[in-house]
From TrEMBL, chains A, B:
Signal peptide: none annotated. Keywords: Amino-acid biosynthesis, Aromatic amino acid biosynthesis, NAD, Oxidoreductase, Tyrosine biosynthesis. This is prephenate dehydrogenase. GO terms for molecular function: NAD+ binding; prephenate dehydrogenase (NAD+) activity; prephenate dehydrogenase (NADP+) activity. Its EC number is 1.3.1.12. Pathway: Amino-acid biosynthesis; L-tyrosine biosynthesis; (4-hydroxyphenyl)pyruvate from prephenate (NAD(+) route): step 1/1. The keyword Iron does not apply. Belongs to the prephenate/arogenate dehydrogenase family. It comes from Marinibactrum halimedae. Residues 2-293 form the Prephenate/arogenate dehydrogenase domain. It holds the Pfam family PDH_C. SUPFAM superfamilies: 6-phosphogluconate dehydrogenase C-terminal domain-like, NAD(P)-binding Rossmann-fold domains. The keyword Nucleus does not apply.
Amino acid sequence: MKKLVIIGVGLIGSSLALGLKTRKSAYEVIGVFRSKSNANLALEMGVVDRCVSDLGEVAAELGGGDIVMMTVPTLSIEAVLHQCRSLLSPSVTITDGASVKGSVREAALAVYGCIPSQLVLGHPIAGSEKSGVSAANPNLYVNHRVILTPMPETDHAHVDDVAKMWREVGAEILLMDVDLHDEILGATSHLPHVIAYSLVDTLASDAHNEDIFRYAAGGFRDFTRIASSDPDMWHDIMLANKKSVLHSIDLFTANLERLRAAIESNDGDAIKGVFTRAKTARDHFTQRLKQQEK
Amino acid sequence: MKKLVIIGVGLIGSSLALGLKTRKSAYEVIGVFRSKSNANLALEMGVVDRCVSDLGEVAAELGGGDIVMMTVPTLSIEAVLHQCRSLLSPSVTITDGASVKGSVREAALAVYGCIPSQLVLGHPIAGSEKSGVSAANPNLYVNHRVILTPMPETDHAHVDDVAKMWREVGAEILLMDVDLHDEILGATSHLPHVIAYSLVDTLASDAHNEDIFRYAAGGFRDFTRIASSDPDMWHDIMLANKKSVLHSIDLFTANLERLRAAIESNDGDAIKGVFTRAKTARDHFTQRLKQQEK
């Protein structure tokens, strides 16, 4: 039986584990927990088969075909890679679920001095504003994409093993370049989070904030859903993908400034231009997404 | 049988009409249509009982207890009020569904030279990114709020008639001051639309826009849903509520600039401060909304 070791069992790791268990996959799932209560919860929920408190307790059992999955916060990856380097044989597949891939590549270079062929960087494009083991969802990845960003140094056999594992829980695999991944996710995920957090913080700081939130309706709830995401996790993502995030913020701010000027000067053509281009692009995008989901 | 005349039968007006018909309400619903094909569609769908092409065709039939509902685009209200002034007796209730109330007050002052006691300004807080008669939904207003903003000049009997009509389709009535309404909606609805339109337009203008939209996922679709709203309608709203919209944009931009600076300078405390305040405020807001919806 192959082994899957999950370091940092939160929503992402526990949903993967529960998805594999639910589908009677051929993995023994071992969780590395710092918190005893989380470990007990994961055992009770059937998320993991076994719990350990440190990778060292299980490293000697691992070999070819086994996978170590790092689902710790993005900026903690480097510390985990130090452990991997000292404890794991080169035959063990190492992968991750971090939302930024360039920072993991840098961490690997800092720790190993090279990109180890056993390291497969990955990013499941699924999530929730909920977090933790208690939110584990065995179908979180069904019809969702997992982006893998193999590098020239990466061994194809390790990529195949990671891809196979994700497909078992219903995910579709996409291969992408590390830098393109970070640029695209900076634009479509990290920037929206920056905006949603900033918008809600703006309104919460307003003198009328009690009235504002009292009379806000369902549309506002949907628009700001991602502002309920885990602050610590998103702090890490913003800093790990700083270059792309700042670039995206600047493009957005420039566009917003032009739109503001158009509203101030009653420039109806410019206002309708922005609104119409946006509607056309989004309608086109959602149609394609609908076709993919069929 | 009382008469409800709807001028400008789009999503808002047709959903009200269909909601009343579905509940066998005691209104004869008469639609004023410029487009023959829309009129036929509304008749076929059972949205209206009768169609006319001008308010003048039906004005002489109207008296106390009858309601004229203006659901035309916000900036077209003034032209409709000119018709109302020349055609309707002071016993007929006049109301509207525009998203901005200050601009309707100004239009009334410009047309009548005063606030006529028969005029009840209203705003149903419900909608969809869909539009038009074909999107009519008889349950659009169930458990949604309709804000009425009566002024000192407004006759209570007219307010009661309008409130009663909205309650028949499941809405909850809130009374509010005109200026507070525009400030709150500017913050919770108009600003989010500005942001969503601007964000999607920013990404559509990016050199990588094909990849960006190809790899964007469901979270992006939800966040940008309101960018698929009707550009003409939202053009009017932005200009009608210009003062509040510009003020809201400025507060948001200042907050976003501070957050950008915190990311650039690795100021983790400031980043987590924004994210945590936002999450707390939103979680608090959604809990209250959930209790209201029970």
